[in-house]
Amino acid sequence: MQENGIDIDRLVRQYGSLVLKQAYFYLKDRHKAEDVCQEVFLRMYKKQPQLPDEQSEKAYLLRVTINLCKDVLKSAWHRRVTPMIEGYDAPHPQNGPEADAVENEEKQLLYEAVLELPPIYKDVVLLFYYHDMPTGEIAKVLKIPEVTVRTRLMRARTRLGTALKGRLKDEA
Amino acid sequence: MKLEQFKEIADENLRDLYVDERMVSRIHRKLCAVPVRRKARVPRASALLAAACVVVMLLSGGVLLHGTGLLQPAASAAPGAAPAVPHNSAVSTLSSSVETSEYIDGSTLSYGVAEVGSFCEEGYAPARGTNGLYGYVNRDNVWVVPAMYDAAEDVVDGKAAVTVQGTVQIIEVP
Known about the structure:
The complex is a heterodimer.
Chain A: E1 2-3, E2 6-7, H1 8-27, H2 30-47, H3 54-74, H4 76-80, H5 98-115, H6 119-130, H7 135-142, H8 146-171
Antiparallel strand pairs in A: 1-2
Helix pairs in contact in A: 1-2, 1-3, 2-3, 3-7, 5-8, 6-8, 7-8
Chain B: H1 6-13, H2 21-32, E1 36-39, H3 44-60, H4 74-77, H5 87-96, E2 99-102, E3 113-116, E4 124-129, E5 134-138, E6 143-149, E7 151-152, E8 159-164, E9 167-172
Antiparallel strand pairs in B: 1-2, 3-4, 4-5, 5-6, 7-8, 8-9
């Protein structure tokens, strides 16, 4: 499925799961994430952007995914409907020692805390820590200055630290 | 707990979330149904100029260029005889050369509907294209799924079985 130099089949197989997970981080709903994932590749096909290398392809797909997810979050339907918590998203029971169980719980709290960050902080945290992008590349994807990226990263870390301390105290 | 561990934690949580073959074929079907508007190689300005020349020629009956030997309308070249190229066909050929529609799999809209099967409640029917392959049309005989399958069964509840290279697949119509 190649058109004007863009091999959509390859892109879907190479970046499909990445796009799907990125959408899930924002929407927390598998079906909505699948719809967004489909729309991302549909838009790419219609737009036929000139992307010289794999880094540009990934950056383009992530930018479109983030924008589409924010559109969905702003939509009236999404604001009125609460997504159901999906089974596979729940923490997996562990049979190890108590220390392992505590560590797993902390990991789960961190995961949930990142997903609950406001979108402007979640953008930078996901791109930096999940997609391993340097701050310069994140600035290009989000179309903001690199200094802003660093500031948001710092504030996101502070917020996460506060949220995790609070939750761990609640748990104790 | 370090934030650097987030990737590992997220991958563990979302290990069941990935694009499988079902998702790939779903995206593929959606893309196949999107006609791509392509600009033809003929530059628009020159196409318009050519159209203007045809109109001038037709309106003037060849008066402007008659006698110069450069351009002789068929009617004036052979009085009483039918024009070599009918006016309408000259114009339509010109306009159709400006734009062509093409599906992602390379099949163009140039093929027509050769044969139509029975329509379902939703108003779609399997049809054979003049390219020899099968797709689905609506009640206006417009392709809703391009003719690209070796065989196509009737539509039931928006789904239909099609055969591609000996493999039977279930697709959603449209």
